[in-house]
Amino acid sequence: MTNVSLENKKENIGHSFEYKWIPVRALDVDDLYQRQIKDPRIKNIVKHWNPDLVNPPKVSLRADGSMYIFDGQHTAVAYKIHDGEDSQILCKVYRGLTWQEEVELFLAQEGPDKRSLTTNERLRAMYNSNNEQVRSMVKAAELAGVRVDFGTSQAINKVTAISTLFKVYKRLSREQYIDMLIVLREAWGGSPEGFSRELLVGMADFFKAYYTQFKLKDLVKSLSKVSPVQIVREGKSIGTASSTYARIILRVYNSGRSTNRLPDLL
Length: 266
Fold this sequence. Notes:
Layout: E1 8-10, E2 16-23, E3 27-29, H1 39-47, E4 58-61, E5 67-71, H2 73-83, E6 88-95, H3 99-107, H4 119-128, H5 132-143, H6 162-171, H7 174-187, H8 197-210, H9 216-223, H10 228-238, H11 244-254
Parallel strand pairs: 3-5, 4-6
Antiparallel strand pairs: 1-2, 2-6, 4-5
Helix pairs in contact: 1-2, 4-5, 6-8, 7-8, 7-9, 8-11, 9-11, 10-11
């Protein structure tokens, strides 16, 4: 099958596209922004194979001649499995895209036939495309001794609730954010449970209300006496109020104190 140009549309933004038949083996994927391949999705495409219903992958033809898929990598893999790696697939090929524009188009993917990007996938792509805010969130976490790699596997001193972490980062000052993560890490030895979504939210609320009124080492000492699992379990039994976990943290901090108790500002 020869390359066939079906359409050529030039824009004022410095790039153009055309439809071409491309050997599947010639298509690459940029791991810096692409999501991981999901085997069940590919198996489903192959099982219900119908080339008339397959949307053309969108491909960036880079200056060195390499072709990178920024939308439709599962379709390309399914083609390779169904028809072989020498099979050709109709692609929407873009010329003149910068790498940043590839990432932006990847993040803008929408449509009823597309799986929405998870927040982790979106933030990972933003991080690798040098988004200043996401980069700063990760760097500040590193200063607190906490790792953010956008993966979902749990590990010591690692946050996996990235969506919540990003919201917390935007709420707090940089100093508050770093100190909050230090407290969570030191109180429970960096355990994954200590960086749960509930505790990130609760600690952010607590820090917003009391940051200048307590000593970090005192908060670490108080929290270390109670397991993070216990705090989360208690919070879930109480209700869904936004201040629930901050109130539990307040109670834990004040427990046993006859002086320097914190007032209820929540």
